[in-house]
């Protein structure tokens, strides 16, 4: 996994936050549909600077992919009983 914290901009929309396992699964689902994803992991950034941070990992997409991603994210949340 790579951390894309420095590549996020206003055109990126957060679609999910949670554990690494869930993020990786949703990332796979979205990328199978041709949607590029970006991971923001504050806990990783904090750990390399010597701090402890238990913030959830966040998954972002480009805002132009929101409509295509919406049913995939909703199906994912239903499958894992998430909101």
How would you explain this protein's 3D organization?
- The protein has 83 residues and is of the alpha+beta class.
- The protein contains three helices and three strands.
- A three-stranded antiparallel beta sheet has the order 1-3-2, covered by helices on one side.
- The longest helix is centred in the last third of the chain and has 14 residues, at 66-79.
- The two termini are 24 Å apart.
Layout of helices and strands, plus pairs?
Layout: E1 12-18, H1 20-32, E2 37-40, H2 42-48, E3 57-62, H3 66-79
The tally of strands reads 3
Low-pLDDT residue spans: 1-6
Domain module count: 1
What is the H-and-E element order? EHEHEH
The tally of helices reads 3
Record the strand order, biggest sheet: 1-3-2
Overall mean pLDDT: 83
Give me the CATH fold name: Alpha-Beta Plaits
């Amino acid at each position: 996994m790579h951390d894309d914290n420095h590549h996020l901009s206003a055109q990126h929309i957060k679609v999910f936050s949670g554990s690494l396992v869930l993020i990786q699964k949703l990332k796979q689902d979205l990328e199978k549909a041709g949607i590029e994803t970006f991971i923001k992991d504050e806990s990783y950034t904090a750990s390399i600077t010597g701090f402890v941070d238990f913030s959830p990992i966040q998954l972002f997409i480009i805002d132009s992919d929101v409509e295509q991603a919406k049913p995939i994210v909703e199906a994912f949340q239903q499958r894992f009983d998430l909101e």
